[in-house]
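Bug #2210: token dump truncated for G-patch domain-containing protein?
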Amino acid sequence: MSDSDEDYMSDAVLAKCEDKRPGIVPERLAAQYRKEQKVKEINSKNRMKPLKVLEHEKRSEGLNKPIGEGNKGFSLLQKMGYKPGMTLGKKGTGRMEPVPINFRSGRSGLGEDTERKRKQEEMTKWRASMREKRLRKETEYQQDYRLQKSKMMAEKEAEYDLYKSQRVCEQLDEAQNIREPEEVYYWTPAKMKMLMKAAESQKSSSDDDDDEASDEDPPLGFHFTDESNKESYRDILNKNDNRSGNEEEEDQLPSVAHQRHMIADERCMLPTQLPGFM
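Reproduced locally. Full output below:
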């Protein structure tokens, strides 16, 4: 290394470097920015505001400014005992602030806002009433559905109990060689249908014969001791075959629950005490 070369470790090399720290704005740019901000503030102050804005500012300033003591009305109130911050009225329940001034911004009529509010209130009440009515209807439908289902289940249970009672009566009558039940609903519909078909076939086959005695003796050991029972058999079988028949035919037969109780009364026991009742 020659003597003319400077030592890179000396302070002379560092002094030649410019002080430029990263992230710091130079003073010249900062001064220019401040100058631009002052110009913007001056322009915003000197800019002419719209007339509506100026009127609103003046109005707000005047309404927010309290009445001075130099006002004659205020001085008269003070002589009557009024102090700043008090409310008007004898009991102190009056206004503390003056009635506000509301300026209309649109061109609609004077009563349009009131009418619009009234219609909105009516619509709100109507919607609330319709919602309440819908909820009430849904509750009624649910209750009706539950009642209908419970009624159907009760009818099915009664029909099943009646069938079991008829089956027990039929077995007891057969054990005692009873050829005809006392009432048409004492035996099961299947048994009655089979006997009725046998009686009808016997009657049709006996029409060709001259023997009148054979016309009244059905096969299978069954004999009608009462012609009214024969007609009742036919009615009950027709009803079981077609449940959607006339209401007059349905009224001729007792209800399922009534039939069951009548069977129990004839047997001198409770419906739940019949043999085979579960």
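Output looks complete on our side. Residues 213-225, 244-254, 267-278 have pLDDT under 50 and may be disordered. Marking as cannot-reproduce; reopen if the truncation happens again.
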